[in-house]
Structures are given as structure tokens and as C-alpha cells.
Write a structure and sequence with these properties.
GO terms for molecular function: heme binding; molybdopterin cofactor binding; sulfite oxidase activity. The protein has 505 residues and is of the alpha+beta class. The protein has 11 helices and 19 strands. Bound molecules: the ligand Nc1nc2c(c(=O)[nH]1)N[C@H]1C(S)=C(S)[C@@H](COP(=O)(O)O)O[C@H]1N2 and molybdenum atom (MO).
């Protein structure tokens, strides 16, 4: 007889071998055959919008790690129950593994770019999982072994542990091998950005206030916020990359990376913001982008009248819907460089859209491969389908960076500061309120352009110990001052003033 613990562990071992073998065999088939990513991506796609928002709000940029852990724990829990339910006569656990394998195959087939052959690793993994469960149930393990003298329970436990370890090792090996095999890091390293025909205006030092520790006005690539639904970062080489412009156009065109050479190379400084950014949040960064004007590319295709939306699509099937007029202006880019380097892979290598004035979910498609000219009354993009607003102009907002929440301030003079943004319009003024006092003008760093954030500082004298609150609000160049009314990020961006309470000691 086996104890329930050993039987449950047997189920987990079977699942580990199934997933591990599928991952290892999958490494030979390429990213589309990766059942782990396929299931995770399907979970992301099928998760209701509010749960996704909760996940982003709770886990932030660690949301994908949290998902991976949850998926693995769920598989392990189901597998443990399946192991308990498996008996020699009623192979309930084996049936559960077959069903799970079927779901895995369906997930693989549902991904953009997969083919029938891509389910082979999952099928092999499933078969191995069933085999493990049957072996662990086998009578032969129960027979007393006169030669070795080990008791059957111990033998079964050891075998279970061994198989669990084998599953885990092959799973990790599969992930590592497929990452190395598909990575475009080498392709990126070998790429030198083209010479810039029209550089951005130089960035004066005066954009960055002195005497206060604010984020760098230009965000380094490593510090730049990252948001996307891609469970594994798409690996698209320059030679594989295509940009197809189709839909309501005079003539469909498809550009290769080399075709881009005949367009003017421009450089723009643009601040990106995520619609999910809560009041005071960190989902905003500023970079110098190198690329091509989207309007130049669209002109080759000829936008037909009546088209009011560009539905851009990523190689992994993610979509954004952007108003045509936002892309036919001078400032929208098909970006290939970020702060003087090729785009980092997680920021869209080899090409992405960067559009000033619009939240990323309606404009900033990374790993972009298609632009479809269509209409807002005909097409919906990824987040719009989940209840977010179809149009996403960035709202005027501001943030206190110093003091940080929970930071103490010493008695005497102190300089506070932060950032404010109203992309497209520009920030005209920033005001600060200490406790319930009057609104005072903050000192502004120089404005670079309406498309970039603006930094502010505020000198204050801490005269008495105890708790104080600093609140900030910005006014944009259209004359609009931020509303105090608190709104959640859903459906079109948060509103409300940011405050920090701090202790003077
Ligand atoms: N392919 C793809 N592009 C995407 C997304 C995505 O999920 N997939 N997310 C968008 C969102 S919501 C934002 S805010 C920006 C973030 O760009 P970053 O990660 O380079 O900061 O990318 C946009 N582009
Ligand atoms: Mo976003």
C-alpha cells in the first residue's frame, strides 16, 4: 500500500515529467511549440479585464512572474489530486493528464504563428506523464525484492522523487535551451543604428532641477518602465521582420528592414506613459527615440479617406488602435533606437511605434509587424475589447518624488520635487500645497517640448517636528488644471492630486 502523500507526489511527478519533457522536446521545435508560454498567454488572454488590472496593480512589472508561479502551483495542485485519484482499475489521474495535455495542445494551436506540428512536444510530454503515473501504480513496485531488501514503499518514494527531479531538470533545461536558441540578442548586438538625418534638439542641462534627487530627465534603458502582455519576450530578427500596411489603403505595401533605409532617419524625445499608472505611480519614462516617421511609411501606401484608425499589430498578436491623425503628424515614430542604442528586446526590438500624447495601450505597439487602416466603428484593439476606452489621450498629471512616502525630513531647509506631464500640450505650471496652506508656485525645470515631462522643485523650511503633507497639481499649456477628483485608471487613465505625508524629525 502507498500512503496518500506518496500518491499525491506521484501525480506531481507525472505532471513535472509531462511539462519537463514537453519543454525539452519543444526546444527543438521553436518558440511556437512552447506549451508553457502558450498556456500562460492563453490564461492572460482569457483572464477577465478587472483581474488583469488587479494583477498589474498588485504585482506591477512582476505580474508575469506572479502568473508563472500561479500557473505552476495550479498544475501541481491538480496533479496532486489526480495522483490521489489514480487507481489501477480506474485511471482517473491518467485521464486528467490527457485532458490537461489536450488543453495544452489547444493553447499551442491558438497562438499566432503556430502550426499542427507544434503540438508534438506536448503530445510526447503527455504520453510520458501518463507513463510515469502508470509506472508508479505498477504492481511490480510492490513485490518484495529479495535481492536488494529495500521495502516497496521506500522504493516507490525514491522513484517518485527521482522522476520529480528529472521532470524539473528537463523543464529548466528546455527553457534555457529554447531561450538561447531563439534569442535575438546577437542580432541586436550586430546592429548599428543608421546615421540620423534630423537629430532632436539638444537637451539643455536646465531641464533637470538641481539640489533634489529626482529621476534622470532621460530615463536609462534599464530603468525604463516595461508593460506588455508578452509572457516570453518576442524574438524577432531584423531579417525576419516585415511591416505590412494594409486595409483602407490605395496599395498594400510590405517593408523589409532594409527597405527602411530609403526613409529619413529622425530622432525625437518622447515621454511614454501607461494608462494603468495610478496617481503617483511609476509607469512613465522618457527616452530619445531614433526611427522613421510613420507618416512617411503611410504615404507609400496611401491612406484612403474614411479610415480613422490604424490598428497596429505585434508579432505576438497584440493590437492597438490609434487615430490616423496621431500617426500622420510629424512626431509619431516607427522607432528602432532608444537612447542611442538599438531598441532593447523587451522594448520592442527590432521596431515599435512611439506616438506622443497617447497612452501606450492605444499607440506604442512593440515588435510591430502590421498597420491596418480601418475605422473605430469596425475594429477593436486588445485592451478596448476588455473595456478600456478606444481613445487614450494622456491626461495632465503630476507626481511628488521627493520626499518618498515614508521618508523622514530633518528640521531646517529642504528641497522637494517631482515630475509633471501633459504630453502634446506641455506643462505650463506646477503648484504645491503644504498641509492646508495656500497653493504656491513650484520652480520648474526648463520645458524641452510639449511631448516630454517637466520636472519641478520646491524649497521649504521644516520648522516643527510632526507629520506634514505635500500635494502637487499641474496646469497644462491649454490652461487646464488637474482635477482633485480621484478616478481609477480604468477606463481611460487615473485622475486626482498626488500627496505624500512625511515626518519631520
Ligand atoms: N506588443 C505589445 N506592445 C505593447 C504592449 C503589449 O502588451 N504588447 N503594451 C503597451 C503598453 S500598455 C504600454 S504602456 C507600452 C509600454 O512600453 P514599454 O514597455 O517600452 O515601456 O507598450 C505598449 N506596447
Ligand atoms: Mo500601458
Amino acid at each position: 500500500m502507498t500512503t496518500p502523500g506518496v500518491r499525491a507526489a506521484g501525480g506531481v511527478a507525472a505532471a513535472a515529467v509531462a511539462v519537463g519533457v514537453a519543454s525539452l522536446v519543444g526546444a527543438a521545435f521553436g518558440p511556437e511549440a512552447d506549451v508553457r508560454t502558450a498556456v500562460g498567454s492563453s490564461v492572460i488572454d482569457l483572464t477577465p479585464g478587472p483581474v488583469k488590472e488587479w494583477a498589474i496593480a498588485t504585482f506591477g512589472t512582476a505580474d508575469k512572474l506572479a502568473l508563472a508561479v500561479m500557473v505552476l502551483l495550479t498544475i501541481a495542485a491538480i496533479a496532486a489530486v489526480a495522483g490521489l485519484a489514480e487507481t489501477r482499475r480506474r485511471p482517473v489521474g491518467s485521464i486528467a493528464i490527457v485532458i490537461a495535455g489536450g488543453i495544452g495542445c489547444a493553447a499551442v494551436l491558438s497562438r499566432a504563428g503556430s502550426t499542427g506540428a507544434d503540438i508534438i512536444p506536448t503530445l510526447i510530454g503527455t504520453a510520458c506523464g501518463v507513463a510515469v503515473l502508470r509506472i508508479l501504480q505498477s504492481d511490480r513496485l510492490d513485490g518484495p525484492s529479495s535481492e536488494t531488501g529495500t521495502d516497496p514503499g521506500r522504493r516507490r518514494s525514491l522513484l517518485t522523487i527521482g522522476l520529480l527531479a528529472a521532470g524539473a531538470v528537463s523543464g529548466v533545461a528546455g527553457v534555457v535551451i529554447s531561450r538561447l536558441a531563439s534569442s535575438v540578442a546577437g542580432d541586436r548586438d550586430a546592429f548599428a543604428l543608421p546615421r540620423i538625418d534630423t537629430p532632436a534638439a539638444p537637451i539643455p542641462e536646465s531641464v533637470q532641477p538641481k539640489g533634489v534627487e529626482l529621476p534622470s530627465w532621460v530615463t536609462g534603458n534599464d530603468d525604463f518602465y516595461r508593460i506588455d502582455t508578452a509572457l516570453s519576450v518576442p524574438q524577432l530578427s531584423r531579417s525576419e521582420w516585415r511591416l505590412r500596411i494594409h486595409g483602407m489603403v490605395d496599395r498594400e505595401v510590405t517593408f523589409t528592414y532594409e527597405d527602411l533605409d530609403r526613409f529619413e532617419v529622425v530622432e525625437k524625445v518622447i515621454t511614454l506613459t501607461c494608462v494603468s499608472n495610478p496617481v503617483g505611480g511609476e509607469l512613465i519614462s522618457n527616452a530619445v527615440w531614433t526611427g522613421y516617421r510613420v507618416k512617411d511609411l503611410l504615404a507609400e501606401a496611401g491612406v484612403r479617406s474614411g479610415a480613422d484608425m490604424v490598428l497596429s499589430m505585434s508579432v505576438d498578436g497584440w493590437t492597438a488602435g490609434t487615430p490616423v491623425e496621431a500617426l500622420t503628424g510629424d512626431d509619431a515614430l516607427l522607432a528602432i533606437g532608444m537612447n542611442g542604442e538599438p531598441l532593447p528586446i523587451e522594448h520592442g526590438y527590432p521596431a515599435r511605434l512611439v506616438v506622443p500624447g497617447l497612452y501606450g495601450y492605444v499607440s506604442a505597439t512593440k515588435w510591430v509587424t502590421a498597420l491596418e487602416l480601418t475605422r473605430f466603428d469596425r475594429a477593436q484593439a486588445y485592451w478596448t475589447r476588455l473595456g478600456w476606452s478606444a481613445r487614450g489621450p494622456i491626461k495632465t498629471a503630476s507626481r511628488v518624488d521627493v520626499p518618498r512616502s515614508g521618508q523622514d525630513v530633518a528640521l531646517g531647509p529642504v528641497t522637494f520635487g517631482g515630475v509633471a506631464w501633459a504630453q502634446n500640450r506641455g506643462v505650463r505650471s506646477v503648484e504645491v500645497q503644504m498641509d492646508d496652506g495656500p497653493w504656491e508656485q513650484a520652480t520648474l525645470g526648463d520645458s524641452y517640448s510639449g511631448d516630454t515631462w517637466r520636472m519641478w522643485s520646491y524649497a521649504w523650511e521644516a520648522r516643527d517636528t510632526g507629520f506634514h503633507t505635500i500635494t502637487v497639481r499641474a496646469t497644462d499649456d491649454s490652461g487646464y488644471t488637474q482635477t482633485p477628483d480621484r478616478a481609477d485608471p480604468v477606463p481611460d487613465g487615473a485622475t486626482g492630486w498626488h500627496s505624500i505625508t512625511f515626518a519631520v524629525k
